[in-house]
Amino acid sequence: MKTRLKFFTPITAAVIILSSLTMPAQAGFLGLFGNDEDQSVPEPEEMQRREAAAQELLAKAKAEEQKGDFEDAADVYRKIVDKYPLTSITADAAIRSAELYESEGQPRDAFETYQKFIELSRGDRRFDEVLKEQYQLAQRAKSGEFKRRILIKLDIPMDAKVEMFETVAKNAPRSPLASASLFAIGEMQQEVGAIADAINAYAKVVADHPDSKEAPVAQFRIGELYVTQSERGAKDTTTMTSAREAYEDFLVRYPNHSLAKDAKARLGNVDSKQSEDLLKIAKFYEKTEKYRAAAIYYRDIIKQGGPDDVVAEAKSRLATLQASKNVDVTMPEPSAADTSVDSSLTKDRDDYVGPPSPTLTKREFTPRTSMPASPSEPLPVDDDGITLPGGNPLLPENGASEPITPEEESVDSAE
Q1: pLDDT tens-digit map of 303-325
Q2: What is the pTM of this model?
Q3: Domains in the chain, please, with CATH?
């Protein structure tokens, strides 16, 4: 197929027609992938035979390229790499094949051929340049730059683009391109609304490359994504708790970053949202006549603060409960030696008050190796149904005359 060459990288600027492909084989060349030839180091006579066969293919590839049949030429160059990985011309054939594939709008073939170069020649002086070319290919695939010959946009599947960036990160895990690649995966997942996958990708940036330029932005976006998840209707207070932790981690780790001011503002918004959620929980307990549980939640809202109207309502309702129901909301501090469980937190007791409300005190920064699991899909609700911290349904229609404890939920799951 004859087409006009549109693309050319500086890697082989000095060898446009590959006239210099007679250099000695790189010391780092090892056959690390399948091909038709034995991967063991051949005897000198066998090596000469392979060199001669590779040179014949080289002549054919150059002839195709000179005719303008660049796709056919790329295929022949790649055949040298696949069939004769230990020859003196293999590295250059891989690079030229990848360049021609890219020029012909075949980014996946180009990427795979660059990968063969990387696997074969990690000691080659052009390794870093080829790695950059791989990263640029992945970025162009991400942005949708590649088009078919009839100018129709080339549709590269999401999983293929993710794999390209993951490969770059694995090829040089300590390179700045590794963190940039992982961050790009998070961006792609965020763009298509795959919140859980995006959170996991950004979390990996922070965990594996905490000092990279992408890490602070990744940490900030984790908080944003949890907030988005909550706003989409997730009836689960753990979502906002995770958002709060993400913003807190950001402020502890990157207090001087340009996003710190925004993180503080978002943290305040999260606090307000959590107070509103706690008020809903308290009102549900009050509605189901679990007055002590309701009073404890009202007390915690007053203690932690929040929007003025929320705090005012909590104070009013708490005062009413204490006056009309004679509710005792005091919680004695256990002694250091007392490891027993408070009987009022045991579901089979008449004085059961439900699980404790989430603490909102500041935490020491602890790097996370992974982010909390994504909450389950929102449950259908009516009235002011709400879910306690941990995601347990508190819906009368579900038969929850008393709240379901996290311990019971874990037992049910095990069964």
Answers
A1: 888 888 999 999 999 988 888 87
A2: 0.68
A3: 10-143 (1.25.40.10), 219-333+341-414 (no CATH)
